Every structure is written in structure tokens, then in C-alpha cells.
Amino acid sequence: GFTLGSEATIAGYFWYGLSVYPSYSFFKWYLGHSVLDPSFAMAHADGIALVAGAIAAVFASVGLTPLEACRIRTVAEPEVYRDIGLSGTLGVIAAEDASMGWKSLYAGFPSLLTRQVIFGSA
Prior knowledge:
By secondary structure, the chain is an all-alpha fold. It is built from 6 helices and no strands. It is elongated.
């Protein structure tokens, strides 16, 4: 029922909070102090914030994509994935295609990345 997929959802929120906010702050600082001239950075603070948000969203999506794959599988096929938990679901998805292995966890990366970059930059 209601808690189906909650392990992956909680882990995803944890990862997102742990990764996107600190990396946004870091990249905003890094771009403004190390990559660009300080006077240029001050004049283009909004643009730097957008770029920093996009970079942070890419970083967050690397960890979020496998968790989202697990959440979707658990909700779509609870009879298969409910009892094996998050780590079991990760293992099953990774083992489904022997040629891809763990890379199959990232099949949804392009669509998630697009959504997260737009959200992270807005």
C-alpha cells in the first residue's frame, strides 16, 4: 500500500539533500571565485546561480537515478520487489542484463537528468 517504495524514496530524499544543496553552494562559490573574474562574477550572479544549480542537479542525479529505478520497480511490481528491499532491488535490476550490469540502473538517467536540471536551475 501506502509505504510501497518508501525505502527508495527516503534514500532518494536523503541523497538529494546531502548532495544538491552543498554542491550548489560549492559550485556557486567555485565559479565566482576560482573560474571567473570576481567583477564579472558579481555582475552575473544570477547566471552563475543557474549554472551552479544545473551542475548540482547533475551531481545529484548520479545518485538519484538508481534509487528512482528501484522505487518505480517496487511500485510497478510489488509482488517481485516488496520483500527484497532496496539493496535486493538494486541487485536484481543490475543482474537483469548481464552485458550492462550495474549500468542498467542508469537507463532512466537522461530523462531524470533533464527534469532535475530544469528544476535545479529554476
